[in-house]
Design goal:
heterodimer, A: 90 residues, mainly alpha, two-stranded antiparallel ribbon, B: 474 residues, Amidase signature (AS) enzymes, eleven-stranded mixed beta sheet, 12% strand, globular
Chain lengths: 90, 474
């Protein structure tokens, strides 16, 4: 089962910050759910399992289409001209 | 409740001028406000009335309306309508404006429907009660102290309350069928790939499907025809024939229905059991073949869903960081802080819970035991369905083990909430079509689920129509 340290680790991976109270509540919830789903580990998959043969989907042509960018740019949290500005990456 | 809207009735009333389109739209919008179910996040009042005026001008000029022209519809707020807010019922997207129409919206606009607005839902479609929305709960039109189901709670409630004629929802584990059953309406989840997902805010890409909710089986068929088909922007969609409405209305014969052995073990409400058993009795009395089938994998199907859905959602929701669009807290001094604060503040508890589970089951050291195993079990379940459908044409189950529960009753216990979907998730896992139609009930609505073979929507609706007319209410 998940330990508190593991929850902190996956929260970091998911870019979510949990308060101590949230950690406690989620700790119980997530462990209950993981306890429930682990029954699949006992499920015996048939030996002759058939893999789906998906249809050969035809790909669309890779062509540039005009797309008005003003609405997209207007929704940037921070911008300079038409460029999205974010905090320093490195 | 008042007599329910149908597409045929609206089309007839508009063409014969029994009602003007403007009056129709105004009365829908007024009813939405008076009923106060919180089923809509946004209402496009001005646009809708402007469109209605054009419809009335067309009728006045002597032209006849096409079948769907002027019909008021509602759209779940995870389906993009260009230049309108699309929130997914989340603080993260509370002010996000869609830059394009979803493929299904392009098709609906071409058919001439009038979009009244965007319906409320569980946040990012995660939920079975419409209690996780940033914009507040939706109330069940049959009993305002109860949930309408979820995650397409607003879509189901709006049809049930006669706020619109049909609505679009999305179904990843039962999110159309379960609220349809709680609200006493019909809800169809199509075969995976039969309706384009382009413009649907992704939850779990291998399970999501856009579907329809309506007051009648025929309206489900007509509205489904208006949205299905190949879209080059969704590679998983494919071309298919539209449904034959006259065939759906014809008599059904020579079919075999299957009911799962021992499904009673899933703690089903007594009235649901009695109503379901009564239907099966009526079918047998009419000499329709009913066979018991082994669906002991149903329990595991829910486990598979509880692994695959969060896994895919954690990947799909990774895009929400508040930079290109969405909520920006402005409370950060580094990039890492920005990601964490924006996502933490703007996403609700259920969303965070599923993202964390998804991240865990995909993480190094655990992926094999959880996600990869879930995928194998999923394949096995699909094969088991193929074997079942060699013996029966349809599978009948209750849609949900319970009727609409009280607001607040299950929200604190996620696992109990997930059990609402015990009968519905299998169809998503296997990519199969399934419908919920109302069963006979004394007070709160009850739903009957029919699962069919892949691509067999026409026969599912054919059976649904016949069950509704001849077997359910006797």
């Amino acid at each position: 089962m998940l330990t508190k340290k593991e929850i902190e680790k996956i929260a970091e991976l998911a870019k979510i910050k949990l308060s101590e109270n949230e950690e406690n509540v989620l700790f119980k919830d997530i462990n209950d759910i993981l306890d429930y789903v682990k029954k699949i580990q006992k499920y015996k998959v048939s030996k002759n399992i058939k893999v789906n043969n998906y249809k050969d989907f035809s790909l669309r042509r890779d062509e540039i289409k005009d797309f008005p960018g003003d609405l997209l740019i207007s929704q940037f949290s921070d911008k300079k001209d038409k460029l999205l500005r974010v905090k320093k990456v490195l | 409740m008042n007599q329910k809207f149908t597409i045929e009735q609206i089309n007839r009333d508009l063409n014969t001028k029994s009602i003007s389109c403007v009056d129709l739209i105004r009365s829908c919008i007024e009813k939405i406000k008076i009923d106060a179910l919180n089923d809509f996040i946004s209402i496009f009042e001005d646009d809708a009335i402007e469109q209605a005026q054009k419809i009335d001008e067309k009728i006045k000029s002597g032209k006849k309306l096409e079948f769907l022209e002027g019909v008021p519809v509602a759209i779940k707020d995870n389906i993009l309508v260009k230049n309108k807010k699309c929130t997914a019922a989340s603080k993260m997207l509370a002010n996000y404006i869609a830059s394009y129409d979803a493929h299904v919206i392009e098709k609906l606009k071409n058919s001439g429907v009038i979009i009244l607005g965007k319906t409320n839902m569980d946040e990012f479609a995660m939920g079975s009660s419409n209690e996780t929305s940033f914009f507040g709960n939706v109330l069940n039109p049959h009993d305002k102290t109860r949930v309408p189901g979820g995650s397409s709670g607003g879509s189901a409630a709006s049809v049930s309350a006669n706020h619109c004629v049909f609505s679009l929802g999305s179904d990843t584990g039962g999110s159309i069928r379960q609220p349809a059953s709680f609200c006493g309406v019909c809800g169809l989840k199509p075969s995976y790939g039969r309706v384009s997902r382009s413009g649907l805010i992704s939850l779990a890409s291998s399970l999501d499907q856009i579907g329809v909710i309506a007051n009648s089986v025929i309206d489900c068929a007509i509205s489904f025809n208006s949205i299905c088909g190949r879209d080059k922007l969704d590679m998983t969609s494919f071309k298919s024939e539209i449904l034959d409405i006259s065939k759906i209305q014809s008599d059904v014969n020579n079919i075999v229905v299957g009911i799962p052995k021992n499904f009673h073990k899933f703690s089903i409400d007594n009235e649901i059991l009695a109503s379901f058993d009564n239907l099966i009795y009526n079918l047998k009395k009419a000499k329709i073949k009913v066979k018991e089938i082994d669906m002991s994998f149903m329990d595991c199907a829910l486990s598979v869903y509880c692994i695959i859905q969060p896994a895919e959602s954690s990947a799909n929701l990774a895009r929400y960081d508040g930079f290109r669009y969405g909520f920006d807290s402005k409370i950060y001094d580094s990039l890492k802080n920005a990601y964490e604060n924006n996502r933490t503040i703007a996403m609700g508890d259920e969303v965070k819970r599923r993202i964390l589970i998804g991240t865990y089951v995909l993480s190094s050291g655990y992926k094999d035991a959880y996600y990869n195993k879930a995928r194998l079990v999923q394949l096995d379940i699909k094969n088991k369905f193929n074997e079942i459908f060699k013996k029966v044409d349809f599978i009948l189950t209750p849609t949900s083990p319970s009727k609409a529960f009280k607001i607040g009753e299950k929200i604190k216990d996620p696992l109990t909430m997930y059990f609402s979907d015990i009968f519905t998730v299998s169809a998503n896992i296997a990519g199969l079509p399934a419908i919920s139609i109302p069963l006979k009930s004394n007070d709160l609505p009850i739903g009957l689920q029919i699962i069919g073979k892949y691509m067999d929507e026409e026969n599912i609706l054919h059976l649904s129509y016949n069950l509704d007319k001849k077997f359910i209410n006797i």
